[in-house]
C-alpha cells in the first residue's frame, strides 16, 4: 500500500530534524535537467556533507523512495515528477585532491572539471572525461566512457553511502562494471572516487582535450537540450551495427513527436526543440525502438534513465 501524503511528511520531518543541509518541498526538477523537462521532486535534499547525508539515510524510513541525481545529463524525469526524496550532491561533495598518480574527487565535481585539473597536474588518461557533461557520481553509476576509455578503466575505488546510511569504500572490482552500467547497490549514493592518472606533459594532455572537444562539436548536438546517447549499442553478437546506424537505417533521423526530435546531427540523440514534454521524448524513443525492432528484429535498450511518474498519476 502506498503512503499517504501526511505520513510521508511525518517520516520526512523525523528523518530531517537535525540536518545541516537544505530540504525543499515540491522542487521543480525540469530546469535542472539537460532536456529541460520533467515534474517536481516531492522533496529535494541537498546534504551539507557526507556525515549529514549518512545521518539522514540512517533515519529515513526504508518505505520512502530515494533517488540520486547528478548533473541530469542522462535522465528523462517524467512530467508527474518524483515521489519521495531526491538527493542532489553539491557543495560539500566537490573537493579535488591531487596525488602523484591520481585524483581523489568529490562526486559532485563535473567530469570536465576533473579532466582539466588532471591536465594541469600532468596526469594523463582522464582526457575522455572532458567531453562528458555529467558529474563524477553519475559517471561512476553509468560507467561513463568515450574515445576508447571509461570509468571502469581508471577507477581505483569509490566511496558510497548505502540506503541504510553506512559509508563504504568499494574497490573498482566490487562495482561490477559493464558497458554503461555498474552494480552500484540499490539506493546507494557515490560520494567520492579515486581516479588513476599517468604522468604526462600538461600541454600534450591539454591538446588531446582540445581535440576531443572539437570532435564532439562536429558529431553531437552538444548545445541542444538533450540527454546524450539514448540507447545502448547492441551486443555485437546481436547486431554488428551501432544503435545510431540502426536508427538511421530505420528512417528515424529527424523523426518528431511534438517538439521532441531525433537529432539530425547524431540520431542516437533525442532533442527537445523547445516545448517538448517528457512524455513526448519518451514516446518518441519508443517509436524509434518499435521501428528498429520491426525492420531489423533488434531490441534497443534505453541508456537514458527514465524516472518518476507520468503527469496526473497520484502520489
Ligand atoms: C551532450 C551529451 C553528451 C554525452 N556524451 C556522453 C559520452 O560520451 N559518454 C557517456 O558515457 N555519456 C555521455 N553522456 C551521458 C551523461 O553525460 C553520462 O551518463 C553521465 O555520466 C551522467 O552523469 P550525471 O551526473 O549527469 O548523472 P544523471 O544524469 O543525473 O544521472 C544518471 C544516473 O546516475 C545516477 N546518479 C547520479 N549521481 C549519482 C550519485 N552521486 N550516486 C549514485 N547514483 C548517481 C542517477 O540516479 C541516474 O540513475 C552525454 C550526455 C550529453 C547531454
UniProtKB/TrEMBL annotation:
It catalyses: UDP-N-acetyl-alpha-D-muramate + NADP(+) = UDP-N-acetyl-3-O-(1-carboxyvinyl)-alpha-D-glucosamine + NADPH + H(+). It is found in: Cytoplasm. Residues 36-200 form the FAD-binding PCMH-type domain. Its cofactor is FAD. InterPro entries: FAD-bd_PCMH (IPR016166), FAD-bd_PCMH-like_sf (IPR036318), FAD-bd_PCMH_sub1 (IPR016167), FAD-bd_PCMH_sub2 (IPR016169), MurB (IPR003170), MurB_C (IPR011601), MurB_C_sf (IPR036635), Oxid_FAD_bind_N (IPR006094). GO terms for molecular function: UDP-N-acetylmuramate dehydrogenase activity. The active site is at residues 180, 229, 303. It comes from the Bacteria. Pathway: Cell wall biogenesis; peptidoglycan biosynthesis. Pfam families: FAD_binding_4 (PF01565), MurB_C (PF02873). Signal peptide: none annotated. Its EC number is 1.3.1.98. Keywords: Cell cycle, Cell division, Cell shape, Cell wall biogenesis/degradation, Cytoplasm, FAD, Flavoprotein, NADP, Oxidoreductase, Peptidoglycan synthesis. Belongs to the MurB family. Cell wall formation. This is UDP-N-acetylenolpyruvoylglucosamine reductase. The gene is murB.
